[in-house]
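Hello,

Our lab assistant flagged a job as stuck in the queue for most of the afternoon. It eventually completed. Since we weren't sure the result was trustworthy after the delay, we are filing this so someone can double-check. Below is the sequence as submitted and the structure that was eventually returned. Let us know if re-running is recommended.
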Amino acid sequence: MINPRKLAAIHIATLGPTFAIGNFAGTAFLCMSLGALILWHADTCQLFTFGFYFVSLCINYSVMFFYALEINTRESARAEIGDELNKKRGAMGEYRRQSTYLLLPLVVPIVALQRRYKSGPSQ
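-- returned structure --
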């Protein structure tokens, strides 16, 4: 399953913090704008569903944006990833597979909440 924090770290480690943070923020803004516009003009169930899909993508990318802000340097991203980047080919394959989960509605915040509550409260 997806690990959103590690996915954000891999994004920062490979593409750089400025690009990664800008990518997540821009995608979240674009999805929210498009979703709101579609919902504003929705007069059928299909349009409402399509608008909700874009709003849920905005929520996915907003969570990724906050993780990227939290990590925000290549050094902390590499520390987050650990030894996984040593096997670059395998890490990039896993990265591409996990990136597809970003397109599923509300998967990222649900998994992030599950991971947070499973690890217990932080001290």
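-- support follow-up --
The delay was a queue issue, not a problem with the job. The result is valid. The mean pLDDT is 88. Residues 116 and 122 are 9 Å apart (CA to CA).
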